[in-house]
Design goal:
Layout lengths: L2 H17 L3 E4 L4 H13 L6 E2 L11 H10 L3 E2 L5 E8 L6 E11 L2 E10 L8 E2 H6 L12 E3 L7 E2 L3 E2 L6 E2 L6 E3 L7 H10 L9 E4 L2 E4 L9 E5 L10 E4 L4 E4 L25
Parallel strand pairs: 1-2, 1-8, 2-3, 6-15, 7-15, 8-12
Antiparallel strand pairs: 4-5, 5-6, 9-10, 11-12, 13-14, 16-17
Helix pairs in contact: 2-5
Length: 278
């Protein structure tokens, strides 16, 4: 392992924690945020709380997180989004239309938007209804008491709609929001996996598998908390006037003109406008 990279990251964490002592870790349970959380707690020896945004359904997808919460004795907060909307775009691998569920969470006086990927439901598979379980889900605000947030986002990260989303800075300051801290911006995926292995932390097996000595994303997303089977037929703006509703087993009206579509564009986080290929 590149020890100078680890030491540089630990020094950053300690230095930034002194500057912003009232902070929190944004933790999804994925490899990056888990490595960051381990670095903070067991290398920098800083005990700070965690925020993990969970979905009301498919709670079995948080089994890995629950095990670490118990083992590491984490102080974890979760709360509902203040607003939800939809994002769509061509899959970077297949070119087919895919959807993300966008969640806006209270973030100081401002908000942060987090996206969750979706997959087309398989026959007989339990799924989320894009209207009932997403667009009409309960929303609310939250008293945000922290001045800074440690986030595991890296420069080399990719998105299935946006493609490569190169993070442009280590510290992001936005008026009305807590300071965003990215101490692992220069890490690679291979370095993340190596650090977890050397630290005795197994990456979430529902998200990652190791084949021929190489870690990769688990193609089976049935227990992956980053992706959810969801039907958006009635709010799919790429479909016709009438669509099939598998929940009602009936043909219904497409109401996509009423759906809140958004294209997240944040240049310094690498999120640029979606480009549709003609």
């Amino acid at each position: 392992m590149r020890h100078h990279l680890i030491n540089k990251t630990i020094n950053r964490i300690k230095e930034w924690n002194k500057r912003w002592p009232r902070s929190v870790v944004l933790w999804s349970g994925g490899k990056d945020s888990t490595a960051l959380l381990h670095l903070i707690r067991y290398e920098a020896e800083i005990d700070i709380p965690v925020v993990q945004y969970r979905q009301p359904k498919f709670r079995e997808r948080y089994a890995y997180s629950d095990s670490l919460i118990k083992e590491w004795n984490l102080e974890v907060y979760e709360y509902p989004p203040m607003k939800v909307s939809l994002a769509d775009g061509p899959d970077v691998n297949t070119g087919e239309v895919r959807f993300d569920m966008l969640h806006y969470f209270q973030w100081g006086r401002n908000c942060v938007v987090l996206s969750l990927g979706t997959e087309k439901p398989k026959d007989g598979e339990k799924f989320l209804c894009g209207v009932d379980d997403f667009l009409q889900r309960p929303t609310g605000t939250f008293n945000w008491p922290w001045g800074a947030v440690f986030i595991g986002t890296k420069y080399e990260d990719t998105d299935l709609i946006k493609g490569h989303v190169p993070l442009a800075q280590d510290i992001r300051i936005v008026d009305g929001a807590p300071v965003s801290l990215y101490p692992m911006r220069d890490w690679t995926d291979d370095e993340i996996f190596q650090y977890l292995e050397e630290s005795g932390v197994e990456p979430d097996p529902t998200r990652y598998i190791k084949e021929n000595g190489k870690w990769k994303n688990n193609p089976d997303k049935s227990l992956n908390a980053d992706f959810y089977p969801a039907c958006f037929n009635c709010v799919n703006r790429h479909e016709g006037r009438h669509v099939h509703c598998p929940k009602l087993n009936a043909t219904i009206t497409n109401i996509s003109e009423m759906a809140p579509y958004e294209d997240i564009v944040i240049d310094d986080l690498g999120f640029r406008p979606v480009e549709w290929k003609k």
